[in-house]
Amino acid sequence: MAYCSRSPRRPPGIPSGCLLLLFALWPGLSRAEAPADEPSPAAAEETALASPGLVYWLTARQGYRLRDARPGDEAAADPLAPVAPATDQDLHLALDAGLLNGAGTLGADLALGAWLDADGIAGDPAPLAFASVRDGAAGRAASLYLASVFYRPGGWLKEVRLGRMSTGFGTRTVFDGASLSLLPLRGLRSPALARLELVALGGRTAHLYELDGEHFEDWLGAVALRLRPLRDLKLALDYRLMIEDSASAGLDHGYGLEAQWRISDFLGARLEVRGVDDALSRLALAGRYWHEALGFGLDARIDLQLSTLEALNERDDPLFAILGPSHPNLRWDLDLFEEFETGHADYVLHLGWQGREPLDGISAPFNRRQGRLHLTGDALELVIPGLQASLSLEYHHDGGDLGEGLLTLGGAAGYRSEALRGLGGELGSYYQRFKYDYYADVEERQDVRTFFVAAFVDALPWLEVRLRYTLEHFDRTAHSFHFLLTQRLEGGR
Length: 493
Prior knowledge:
Helix content: under 10%
Order of helices and strands: HHEHEEEEEHEEEEEEEHEEEEEEEEE
Strand content: over 45%
Mean pLDDT: 81
Structural class: mainly beta
Oligomer: single chain
Low-confidence stretches: 1-50, 122-128, 311-322
Radius of gyration: 25 Å
């Protein structure tokens, strides 16, 4: 749903909205009509193996967002709050693309994001309602998430990759360098040994969200061993060395274990353990029970963070520069669900409990003690095809304390017509005790009631248009308008 205003660099007399629309329509200028049965990105590599030429896929999104905030009574009484009315206009571009040759052996991947503060609010020294981590000194910013080429010849050499990438195991880290994946025992009769995979990588980390120059990059080296001793059991062991690129040359040794076990046709489990130097930093356990015949299931997850996550390395959450240090905490998520059908709709009922408890007992910004019990019902294909509705009853409380809390109600309804190029819309409302917006905002909002209405249509086979209006009420009343264009191109030659 979605996200053009005055652009400071546009040619005189050309509205920036026209430029945005022109950019969105450019694929149609060079390409007549999308084939009816093009491969999806997920199946692109399989298609390439049977294709004589080149397979490509591209997803591009251009968004515009206009927001306006007016102070409420609570904000007017807070001397630190941004009490002046404020408006903000932002442009956003996201691109995800890839190429693969017909044999499936050579390819390239690209993913990036770019932001432009269209109304020049970034340099205003006054307190603002819409401070942005991506405004930068010039009101623009860009992040390159992925830009790499790879070679997959088959056999014991599974993959060689060069460029910017992220680690495929352990704590996710973006780095510039190289990775090598081998199947050293491929060809052996033992399936467990033949599937053993050895991964090695190295390079220099890339801080995507750094706000100042105090955090240094790190030289990274890591190895991982993936094995499957049983048909239904997968194991992964990894070790990484991080050397800070500074005069002090700080050193971290990180290590971890991941296990996935398909216990039966109904039950599966996943375990993750991580440590840094001589301390255990994270322990996570997740499980899923699903009985298809009964339509009944249970998802459960417990995540114990034992150390404070600060710097962008093995000890860190990649968003630390926005959120600040993440203190030790216990998080949990339990969800019982039941699926059933009637003559009028398909229904899904959820009974769940999510929460977060700081281990030091201190509830602070971005380290809140919180919990939520909810009962949710979803109705799909309600009476007529394409009509959906949901209703949620929630109880918000402090972490593991189920005492005094807040009972809230939320719901939504929407319709999409496949016969009319996916024309549809939705509206609804929901409550959040704490809300964060990673599009740009760095502030933490509390006790937010949101109302929204949206419309969308597939204007062309490869072009989707979305509009969305949102009203948020907290210590201010904020209005947001989003306009989003999405192009999806896939094919080969």
